[in-house]
From TrEMBL:
The keyword Ubl conjugation does not apply. Its EC number is 3.1.1.29. It comes from the Bacteria. This is peptidyl-tRNA hydrolase. Gene3D superfamilies: Bit1.
Length: 239
């Protein structure tokens, strides 16, 4: 129940400063969120489903060892850990579902995750999908997170599109996965990767970032400044 490679802290794929990872061939993990015009998913549900989709990909038997996706996953983890979220509906979604990947369903959100592809080598049915337009809202405030469950705390001071926030939530889930002992990984996997995504209380944010939990500092490719702290991954086994 372990990924093939777990980056050391000083070689984090999310660090904003250039390093050896920038010299490796660059790959990206594509995620596609289904957004039908008449029934878009709530924002929080989409973020949580995207984070779970990343974990499902990492834990899938095809992504490790001699699995059919393992080489692509290793190449992706050797470079910057990029995730790009695109949106689809109708026939676009059906074409995306026909490609090799895994669809993960939340309360109403659907996200399909695909094995990593070269940065400039997207399948045409994914490359034609739009990145913009993933602005989603919660019709009502999400309930408080269960303190006994993993929580991905989002930076309350950053304004991110839903697509960007979905990618960041995926980064946070991945960092937690890397840091967990094998036994805890197996337990999380067996439970179906329960987790919550919540925006942190501004008064708690500084303490969360200084508490030794896995923290995503964005490389600044899109939307926000390099080095911005976007997510703190608060898994009970890491506290």
């Amino acid at each position: 129940m372990s990924t093939d490679q777990t980056p050391a802290p000083d070689s984090s794929p999310f660090r904003p400063d250039p390093g050896a990872r920038d010299e490796a061939p660059q790959f990206v993990l594509p995620l596609v969120v289904r957004i039908e015009r008449a029934a878009p998913p709530p924002r929080t549900d989409a973020l949580e489903t995207a984070a779970r989709a990343v974990l499902v990909m990492l834990a899938d038997e095809r992504s490790v060892g001699e699995g059919e996706w393992a080489r692509a996953v290793r190449d992706w983890q050797d470079a910057r850990i990029r995730k790009v979220v695109r949106r689809a509906r109708g026939a676009e979604w059906r074409r995306a579902e026909a490609l090799p990947g895994i669809t993960v369903t939340g309360k109403s959100a659907e996200v399909r995750v695909f094995p990593p592809v070269p940065l400039d080598g997207w399948p045409k049915d994914l490359a034609r999908l739009q990145v913009s337009g993933t602005d989603l809202d919660d019709p009502e405030d999400p309930p408080p997170a269960d303190p006994a469950a993993p929580v991905l705390w989002m930076n309350p001071g950053l304004d991110m599109s839903a697509g960007k926030a979905m990618a960041q939530a995926g980064h946070g889930a991945q960092l937690a996965w890397w840091e967990l002992p094998d036994e805890e990984r197996a337990a999380w996997h067996a439970a179906g990767f329960p987790l919550a995504v919540r925006t942190a209380d501004p008064a708690r944010w500084a303490g969360l970032t200084a508490g030794g939990l896995p923290t995503v500092r964005d490389a600044g490719f899109t939307e926000i400044a390099p080095g911005s702290c976007t997510v703190v991954a608060d898994h009970p086994a890491l506290r």
